[in-house]
Specification:
The protein is mostly helical and about 230 residues long. The protein folds into two domains: about 1-155, Ribonuclease iii, N-terminal Endonuclease Domain, Chain A (Orthogonal Bundle); about 160-225, Double Stranded RNA Binding Domain. The protein has twelve helices and three strands; from the N terminus they run H-H-H-H-H-H-H-H-H-H-H-E-E-E-H. It has a three-stranded antiparallel sheet with strand order 1-2-3. The radius of gyration is 22 Å and the shape is globular.
Amino acid sequence: MLKEKLEDYIGYNFKDTSLLELAITHPSFAREQATPDLNYQRLEFLGDAVLSCIISESLYNLFPHYREGAMARARSALTKGKFLTQLSKSLHVMDFIRVSEVEKKAGGNTRNAALEDALESIIGAIFLDSGFEQTRSVVLNWYGDIDTHLNELLINENPKGILQEKYPHGSIKYELISESGPPHSRIFCVRLLVNNSIVGIGVGPTKKEAEEVAAQQALLMEPQQTRPNG
């Protein structure tokens, strides 16, 4: 019943349900059951490669102006870290990961690494169950509007780097406007100038963070131009 509920969440019904069972089996649970090899690690390896291929193909088709370097950064943003963790959470994967009792008490089924690994394992399981075309359809349904996701991810992950790619070297300038607060809790205010025009203002607990906020603000004013060119 639980597996059927997970199938509802991910939008795919397995022909071979043992693949799904394996895809949600954490190594700690397998060891606890004295079946150490019956865990999701091999499926995770496969799913990681399949996901990379699906997103690579999508980026190639969606953004013909992207160069190799830009596509690599975009793929990384969409297949690793925070985005993959949030995607896994949105599909309720954490509610179904089988972990050992010790691991469960330590919150092992909610750790980001476990959420990412289990989602990749599910992708690998779908691939073995139905092949690439069906897997691509399921995964892209999870992702929805890749263009919008990518825009938000790149702005949040590396705003200063994107600005540097958008404008010639030397045309970007961060100026400290003010620094206030006690020594243990400083507040920095920075303004960002591009070609001598103020395009953003940021506030943060460090000068670096204030600069990042200012860069994000500038990029959000022109979301259609935030993607890297190569």
